[in-house]
Amino acid sequence: MRIALAQINPTVGDFDGNYGKIASFYERATAAGVELVMFPELAVCGYWPADLLEKESFIARTEETLLRVAEVTRGDGKPAILCGAVMRCDRPGEKHVRNVAVVCDGGQVQFVQTKMLLPFYDVFDEQRYFEPAQQQGLTMIKGQPVAISICEDAWNDKMFWPRQQYPVDPIEELMKQWAVLPQPLSGNRIILNISASPYWHDKCEVRYRMIGALAKRHRATVVMVNQVGANDSLVFDGASFAINPEGKLLAQSHGFVEDLVIVDTASSETIPFAEDSEQAEIARTWDALVLGTRDYLHKSKFSKALVGLSGGIDSALVAAIAVEALGAENVTGIGMPSEFSSEGSVTDARELAENLGIRFEIAPVKEIYNRFEDSLTPFFAGTPFGLAEENLQPRIRGTILMAVSNKTGALVLTTGNKSEMATGYCTLYGDMVGALAVIADCYKTEVYKLSRYANRERRIIPEETLTKPPSAELRPGQKDTDSLPEYDVLDPIVRAYIEDYTSAEEIAAQQQVDVELVRRIIRLIEINEYKRQQAAPVLKVSKKSFGRGRRFPIVAVR
Amino acid sequence: MRIALAQINPTVGDFDGNYGKIASFYERATAAGVELVMFPELAVCGYWPADLLEKESFIARTEETLLRVAEVTRGDGKPAILCGAVMRCDRPGEKHVRNVAVVCDGGQVQFVQTKMLLPFYDVFDEQRYFEPAQQQGLTMIKGQPVAISICEDAWNDKMFWPRQQYPVDPIEELMKQWAVLPQPLSGNRIILNISASPYWHDKCEVRYRMIGALAKRHRATVVMVNQVGANDSLVFDGASFAINPEGKLLAQSHGFVEDLVIVDTASSETIPFAEDSEQAEIARTWDALVLGTRDYLHKSKFSKALVGLSGGIDSALVAAIAVEALGAENVTGIGMPSEFSSEGSVTDARELAENLGIRFEIAPVKEIYNRFEDSLTPFFAGTPFGLAEENLQPRIRGTILMAVSNKTGALVLTTGNKSEMATGYCTLYGDMVGALAVIADCYKTEVYKLSRYANRERRIIPEETLTKPPSAELRPGQKDTDSLPEYDVLDPIVRAYIEDYTSAEEIAAQQQVDVELVRRIIRLIEINEYKRQQAAPVLKVSKKSFGRGRRFPIVAVR
């Protein structure tokens, strides 16, 4: 069977735009001669619509658009479509919609498979909205039987996962049905999977291994098409592929771009899996952050961004990402030195801006700061310099950035990293202001790796920025290490606690560090929950990022 | 059967504190002579623990504490306990914990009933964590059969609700089991329900009606004990009660305070239901906001609060609530006039502060504002006064408030109302700063009603504040009605859209307003999602508040 994997980038709720992409990819696939064109999960409405699914008009428009999609398959010899959508269900005691994979052929909807396994962990809330399938069945497309599944349906193989998340395995059920098909239909087992599977570290590798194991176990060709593009915090990497019953790769699409790839399930030609490496993962992270930034702005109809440039590595990396995402002409850097800023803070920022070819302006903080002190006399008079005075500086900077944003229509990109966000080493309404927290799911040690990656072709981030000790420069001679351990000590502690819920004692043993240090870090993480709940949306690149996939109370004894 | 309804206020994760409350209420109930003491859902760990349930140590401490609770029932003639907790379950394909009601008697756990209906809508995420019960069974306490249910288990009666949310009704199932009990056991039907049912408008009335209908339908006495106290955004009103098989009230506890009430299920003495009224609902809303504010601060170990006083009604109401919650000596008001502030802005604020007996200070904005303009010259020079200049003023105020907060250890209370939050008539990082958004689930028209309620005993909020036209005072002569319709037109539109997902056309017809106006308001609501996602936690008092119960994408075409 010749199948086109139409890896499109839908926008949530952009029914006309999404339909346009589906129709145009369908046309290209038709010209290439295929029997089936596969589109991702919820392709018609875009993933993730969240509570828009509660709106009657949203469901109605999804259903209308699905009928338009079906219509494009009308006509002799035209390929079928397999496409994700939502459909109503109205039985008492059930949720009001289902997440469905729809086969359209000959101008009509021919078959509907409801998603059975609804993820309800981390960022996923599918059980909030969708009624799960009670059963699944094989169907025929162009005379060929196929097993259709939606994303998570393929993620519960008991032979692959040490622990099953769900009591049933829809793929196993479908393959039991296949086993009793008459010859010759039972010959070529084909499992189709339409997905909206977001990127995070190592996810791509897991998909290959898991689907490969599934293909071998069931002696089936598995074809998986994944959404590409970012919607809010989630970046979908695409990276669609097909694997044959020997677990060999038949075809794959590019990551982080729209792509159309054609696979013949009967082909004996296979391609090698790319060697994976830490460097490849850094490149994917970079691509995810670039795509996440571009889609956040462009899908919201913004073209320009602002970055506060401190001369430090975080803001330098964010500016570099912004330039790749939006173009140098659409990025402005603003230096906002205070009396505690080093000379390097401006010279390094200026050098970065020159390397990137972006506009750079200076908006000084000192005079504003002095007037705040005057105004605050009733509360500040006679008190020593402390946290209040330190935080005033980033809050003035945040206000400057937002003023320029309001004046120019450019969105502010937040520059904090995950190590800071975790430990609260950041100022709410200060350096935390912005529309999008570009690197807030990257630990400081990753920020260095990504910055070196930014410099892979030519020097963009200045040497000084890469080598000087990190400092918030909010008091004389301040260094990050006054408050925190070195980042190569801190980051593994934070990661183990946040991503794996490892206990203090286990972390101390694993990392060979003092358990009291670990407890201090954990306490910092916990008491700073209030800051993160008011943070800008964070581009997710790890399995556990700050944001809606991590739901902790603020008021709690820990 | 003599039962004590122990309506306690637990703190999430405060195992020792929660145990202490359980032991002390148990002791009081024992002295009063009862056979059973009922505590709320998840009383051992506090509701709502959210992702703390992912932490092994949290589950372990809950289980340990439950054993301590069981221990207090050891000894001759001591009453049994029915108490909420979480317990592990380790079967493959299942979630790792269950939400349970545990009967402790004679120093041991005697019976465990798992919650069957797990709410998954609005603020509830229980399916994220808990494995539901597959079945429920009657048990015996002190020789008396009882049917035990947990909160939502009692909320799916097909005779009461027009639409069932779940395919099963655990109460109906339990009553079927009751029907086949031998005489004389089958005589006195008792349904016990332990709840953590948060307050919102009319919820208390719904509970009475629904439980009353259940009691009559099943000819049972229903005893419901509810958590009291606030944890983050959710305020639990308590208001526990018992209803006899005729639907008459046997006992009820006070709302919004800890309480111990004893009921004899065989008693023939009933008490009348209180007449409900709009005024009673306003009083409950007030109590909810006071309790929500007090618990947010006190459970976080803060005692003091700051409020920016503009002379307007929103900040006046928040200050009045803060004083009732925390005491006048713990509240400070700060007036921050800019060049566009009316004279009344300071005089009305000062009068309010005097009426409340709180400290009041002035921190002027004008000089700071001028220095910002200087610093912003590269971007502002030659441009007309506009949104950027307007927003600068509240952002300076936000920065002043946060500086005083950092200096004095007082938390900032945010003063925005729901009408503003909905339409985006508020400044991110400006008037939106703060630890807790006290009245952000109250429409402006409700703010007036609550303010009149604040003045019920003596004049607290000045007459001028109550009568002058609302204005943000960010440019000369500005009025809210320059940008928005009158609040008595706006609020019903916002409410219908946010709380009931009503379409623009239906709202226009219902409210007799121009559909284009409705569309403009809906558009404002939708495009301002980005502000709300960075807002302070909102005390929930309506069925749909901003915050985690309302999950919309920022990037979407609507």
Automatic annotation (TrEMBL), chains A, B:
- Active site (UniProt): 41 (proton acceptor), 115 (for glutaminase activity), 151 (nucleophile)
- List positions binding L-glutamine: 121, 197, 203
Uppermost EC category = ligase
What UniProt keywords are attached to this protein's entry?
ATP-binding, Ligase, NAD, Nucleotide-binding
Q: Pfam families attached here? A: CN_hydrolase (PF00795), NAD_synthase (PF02540)
Give one GO term, molecular function aspect. Answer: NAD+ synthase (glutamine-hydrolyzing) activity
Segments forming domain CN hydrolase: 1-267
Matching entries from SUPFAM superfamilies are given as: Adenine nucleotide alpha hydrolases-like (SSF52402), Carbon-nitrogen hydrolase (SSF56317)
Q: Main role?
A: Catalyzes the ATP-dependent amidation of deamido-NAD to form NAD. Uses L-glutamine as a nitrogen source.
Pathway assigned to this chain's UniProt record: Cofactor biosynthesis; NAD(+) biosynthesis; NAD(+) from deamido-NAD(+) (L-Gln route): step 1/1
Q: Where does deamido-NAD(+) bind?
A: 391, 420, 531
What is the species of this protein?
Answer: Granulicella cerasi
Q: Which reaction does it catalyse?
A: deamido-NAD(+) + L-glutamine + ATP + H2O = L-glutamate + AMP + diphosphate + NAD(+) + H(+)
Say if the entry is tagged with keyword Membrane. Answer: no
Q: Which residues form a coiled coil?
A: none
Q: What is this protein called?
A: Glutamine-dependent NAD(+) synthetase
Identify the PROSITE patterns for this entry: CN_HYDROLASE
Q: Is Transmembrane helix tagged as a keyword?
A: no
Question: So what family is this one in?
Answer: Belongs to the NAD synthetase family. In the C-terminal section; belongs to the NAD synthetase family.
Q: Which HAMAP family match?
A: NadE_glutamine_dep
Binding residue positions for ATP: 308-315, 415
Q: What is its EC number?
A: 6.3.5.1
